[in-house]
Amino acid sequence: MTDVTMTVNGQTRSASVPPETTLLQLLRDQFHLTGAKLGCDVGDCGACTVIVDGQAVNSCLMLAGQADGREILTVEGLASRDRLHAIQQCFENNGALQCGFCGPGVLMSAKALLDENLNPTTQEIRDALSGNLCRCTGYTKMIEAVHDAARLLREDSPAKLTHARPEVTAP
Amino acid sequence: MKQRGRGIACMWYPIGFTVDANPSAATVKVNEDGTATVLTGTVETGQGSLTVLGQIAAEALGIATDDVHVVSADTDSTPMDTGAIASRTTYVTGNAIWLAAEAAKAILFETAAPMLGVKVSQLEAKDRKIQVKNYPQRNVSIGQVAHRSQVILGQPAIGSASWNPPTVAMDPETGQGKPFATYVYATQIAEVDVDDETGEVEILRIAAAHDCGTAINPMLVEGQVEGGISMGVGMALQEEMLFDANGRHINPNLTNYIMPTSLDMPEITVDIVQGFDPTGPFGAKGVGEPTAVPTAAAVLNAIHDAVGVRVTSLPATAEKVLAAIKAKRATEQKQIPA
Amino acid sequence: MNEHSRILEREKLDIAETLRDADLRLPAVAPREPFPIEPLTPDARQQTRAVGQRATRPDGRLHGLGQTKYIDDLSFPGMLYARIKRAGIACARIKRIDTSAAEAMPGVMAVLTGKEIPTNTFGPTFQDQPVLVDDHVFHAGDGVAAVAAVTEQIANEALDKIVVEYEPLPAVLDPVAAMREDSPKVHAPDSNIYATKVIRKGDVEKGFAESDHIFEGHFSTQMIEHVSLEPHAAIADWDANGRLTIYATIGRITLARADMARTLKMPMSRIRIVGTIVGGNFGGKNEITQEPALALLSKKTGRPVKGVYTRGEEFTSTTTRHPIIMDYKTGVAKNGRIVARQIRLVLDGGAYCSWSATTLGKACILSPGPYKIDNVLAEAFVVYTNKTMTGAMRGFGAPQVCFAYESHMDDIAKALKLDPLEIRLLNAFDESSPSPTGQVLHSVVVKETLRKAADRFGWEPRS
């Protein structure tokens, strides 16, 4: 068994898991954070995307042990107790999620992009979402929603929009 | 060099099953406060059908989308439904819910008529009120009526109904008949760049004009069209399940089975063409499947327009397009007189 | 309290008062104050002309929060995990299945084979598909045995311990070859052609004779997978009263219950199907797949059993889009009016019928295109092959035939030096046009869509 301790959505979490356990399995089965989805288990579909130390990663390809000591942000950590994250609000307003299965991964890829770049071009958004397969939406409304969220985040004071729990920062 | 081309494709598509019965049943319960609960046996499979069905119930009762809660997909508690198939949910399930809401509304009208001192036929439900037609100032709130109906008069406003699209069997020899109650129509026009040295096709933009009768929720209709186009893009250029000589799958994974990503999608404009079908709920037909129908055809016609080759087997992969370009060049060279 | 005062008291419940408070629709993590974004229509969900509003989806918020519970997000106390062993061979006779080593593994709670299924066939038109094959393999993705274990990993390992001996048989892979009398039969002794459809209107031969030009075109399409992002998944719970609850990613629960009742020989009142939010359907989740096997594994073990397909199984063991071979012959007058059209469609039906009969019918009816044609002959055949079954997929054959009739249309336009838009407007249905099946069409707006799209695109005729 491997002992791991990491910060998940601002809280310190520990677990003892078999060494072959992926970060996705750890999040879903041990921490009961079922937002990240298993779509292919080999890093093709992006439904399992979470943010590790500021970077969007496929959690099905990362071992739980590799995440030891790192900061993880999942879709459950995006909203605060009293408000949706701008990306979530804009996805909702645009009807950008249909069946929603790819949604948590898409949102985390969008979050990783907007953390780096608050003024992305359409091409930059397409690039950022290119690892997240979606079969329902044709990505069109997702791209519009990311543009809207970027605009909101630019216009509003960062303090107001930062979610209540500590932000994930690079080590 | 990149060659630009444009291609057009139009289509027709039926709503519901081919001749066979495909009924939906529904129950609409108006609560004592004038909100409503809808019971339907259909399943939300991502298209937003429950939102649309709620809007239909709300419209019939003169209340808002938010005032309606839709309960779905439990064989123990919801009425039968043929389900999320054949682009039928808005049209068939929508009609059943509309009829069920009308039945519930009839009970409310029975209660409201003496309250307002008019006949039932003079009433309408609008803006969360039951009011006298042409005299909207003579009204009573729907909550007040629903409460009186259920709690005072003992007549809860609950309506149930079912609907099945009317069809006529097809003659087995000639196929003549009326297999479907209604059809929708659409046109998509694609603009592509084809690299005549690599055969690679880039779809630049698609203009889509779709008929769905009344668009109950235009935002969700757009979402269907955009999603349908992405499937059409995959069908046109990328996707193919391959088998070896023994019938075993070669590419049963998303590494080797290529479907569209955000980088493959063109700019899309969606126009919902004005339409009204008197047989649908508030004039609505359907939109789910037809969105995926004309895309591949439009793209392949655009390739033909760009480089003059007709690819007749899908998908039009770069290899296939390049081979067709080379074959065309070879033919043209042969035709040059010596 | 008199009646009057009671009513007044209760009027406070009136929705006009209470529901304007936006908090009512917000979950625990929602904003206390509205987020400062202008929706496309302010408060579309609050408008009392509900139809026509760009109302947001209540489920959309839950999707974005990661709160939507798909099947794989659900678990029950004591739940077991099921996996299915796949044949991996396209056509074979099963000589022997030995599950004893798998059953002996610690953590394996039950193994199930096809012989244990009360009625081991299902299908919406023809009941030709076994839940688990018992003596014959029809395609490589067929399930041979199912295992329920305490973890998914143990279930996977148990699959390797199941020994199946096959006698390989020649596989039928080409649908055209499969149509020949002397072809091996996929479901012997029946013909491989398992459904046909004919549309006959007017007289095509006469129409061709009257035409100024005759055009022919040959087209074919590929097999396509739905690729719903959520794989097929279900949980079966067989309780002590002999009542079965199935949580499943199925778009048609009414049919699913009928199929379950039939395969398990159970009264419908003892079966409850709960459809959760389906993570993508597109026609691929229109019927049962593994559910009867999960139900029987739950019955055997007395514990809830979950089964989730791998992405590989999504490709090999669920329905797909029909490849269609399409031959078109069209007679056209000098001015571009279509006089006659003859069509022949051959659909690769894969190993089982599934929704092939429906696809065949729709493809055949739609194959002439949205055009006024007095003389039509369309013939369609669907053929068994030893490949993944083809079934319902968004459009039921329509995208395939549209590719053919619209490619063909452009070839005709080019030869006659007509603008592609013009030739379509010349031939397209009008209100009350008769369809190829003689149906008088209503609410016909095909020309409006042509003009609208051309307008938006900026389509200009080229000289």
Overall outline of chain B: elongated
Mean pLDDT of chain B: 97
**How would a crystallographer describe the biggest sheet of chain B?**
4 strands, mixed
Q: Percentage of helical residues of chain B?
A: 25-40%
Level of helix content of chain A? 25-40%
Span of the ends, CA to CA of chain A: 26 Å
The name CATH uses for the topology of the largest domain in chain B is Aldehyde Oxidoreductase, domain 4
Per the principal axes of the C-alpha atoms, what is the gross shape of chain A?
Answer: globular
CATH class of the largest domain in chain B: Alpha Beta
Q: What is the level 1 CATH name of the largest domain in chain A?
A: Alpha Beta
List the defining traits of the structure above.
heterotrimer, A: 171 residues, alpha+beta, Ubiquitin-like (UB roll), DNA polymerase, domain 1, 2 domains, five-stranded mixed sheet, 6 helices, 35% helix, globular, disordered C terminus, C: 463 residues, 23% strand, disordered N terminus
Describe this protein's structure.
The complex is a heterotrimer of chains A (171), B (338) and C (463). Helix content of chain A is 35%, strand content 15%. Chain A has 171 residues and is of the alpha+beta class. Chain A has a 5-stranded mixed sheet with strand order 2-1-5-3-4, with helices on both faces. The longest helix of chain A has 16 residues, at 140-155. Helices cover 31% and strands 25% of the residues of chain B. In chain B, α1 runs parallel beside α2. Chain B is elongated. Chain C is of the alpha+beta class and 463 residues long. Chain C has helices at residues 3-10, 15-18, 58-65, 100-104, 152-161, 175-178, 204-210, 253-264, 291-301, 311-316, 356-366, 398-415, 420-427, 446-457; strands at residues 80-86, 92-98, 108-113, 136-137, 143-149, 163-168, 193-201, 213-220, 224-225, 233-238, 244-248, 271-275, 305-308, 320-321, 324-332, 338-348, 375-383. A 7-stranded mixed sheet of chain C has the order 3-5-1-13-10-11-12, sandwiched between helices. Chain C has a 5-stranded mixed sheet with strand order 7-17-16-15-8, sandwiched between helices. In chain C, α11 packs parallel to α12. Chains A and C meet through α2 and α3 of A and α3 of C.
